[in-house]
Amino acid sequence: MTQVNVDIQQILPHRYPMLLIDRVVALEAGKSCSAIKNITNNEAVVQGYAKGPARYPQMLMVESLAQTGAVALLSLPEFAGHIAFFGGIEKAAFSGWATPGDTLEIAVELTKLRQNAGVGEGTVSVDGQVICSATITFMVS
């Protein structure tokens, strides 16, 4: 992967509050993408998720994976200006939580690409420990 300066909002249509990646740290168009998401107390989803300590919803970790994979896919010249839709989730597994102050380290490798669809394997880590993994499917329109 190569270091890049990516304007996420030029690639994805998502905006606050549903843009769930803060920065792309590495990208190989059509192959892989790594991104980060900083978790803060200022996010309503952290405060209102559950009784008890503030934590980031695990389902949003999967959405962060999908957005990171979409950046890898939509960075291909043939998909520039298109929209990627979340087509499905398989083998999602969770082994921890993210809390305010954590940085999600999101990595997706695209394993299959066909015409207007792709499949990616992704992980979300905090401090090097994987807390979420999933296989995600994308459709490009």
UniProtKB/TrEMBL annotation:
The keyword S-adenosyl-L-methionine does not apply. Keywords: Lyase. CDD domains: FabZ. It comes from the Bacteria. GO terms for molecular function: lyase activity. Gene3D superfamilies: Hotdog Thioesterase. Belongs to the thioester dehydratase family. FabZ subfamily. This is (3R)-hydroxymyristoyl-[acyl-carrier-protein] dehydratase.
